[in-house]
């Protein structure tokens, strides 16, 4: 029988890091009531992790962000709560005009 420490040396470091992050940011803060609940929570967390969570190694972008898009600062930032407020995602919104644009009068009469 192989020794247990040999199996840990072959483990996937990326998977271990994801599990540690998911536990620290999500599952350790929730009371999981069953397998279906756990699957729902982990699915939603994975969506957040890939599309809405900033990653330092990616210059504070999410893995699913388009690398060819240059983010510009916007006037408004919106917060979206995930998993009942356990997680928060922040998205920039285009600046709002103080007044709606007025229609130009048509020259045809």
Summarize the structure in words.
The structure is a single chain. The chain has 109 residues and is α+β, with helices and mostly antiparallel strands. Helix content is 33%, strand content 13%. The chain is built from three helices and two strands, in the order αααββ. Strands 1-2 form a two-stranded antiparallel ribbon. The radius of gyration is 22 Å and the shape is elongated. It starts with a helix and ends in a 16-residue tail after the last strand.
Shape: elongated
Chain-averaged pLDDT? 79
Biggest pleated-sheet summary: 2 strands, antiparallel
Structural class: alpha+beta
Poorly predicted residue ranges: none
Order of helices and strands: HHHEE
- What strand line-up does the widest sheet have? 1-2
| Percentage of residues in strands | 5-15%
**Ends apart, CA distance between termini:** 93 Å
Our Rg estimate from Cα atoms comes to: 22 Å
Give the number of DSSP strands: 2
Please give the oligomerization state of what you see.
Answer: single chain
Tally of alpha and pi helices: 3
**Helix share bin:** 25-40%
Q: Key terms for this structure?
A:
single chain, 109 residues, 33% helix
Please render the helix and strand layout as text.
Elements: H1 4-9, H2 13-25, H3 35-51, E1 76-82, E2 87-93
Antiparallel strand pairs: 1-2
What is the gist of this entry?
The chain has 109 residues and is α+β, with helices and mostly antiparallel strands.
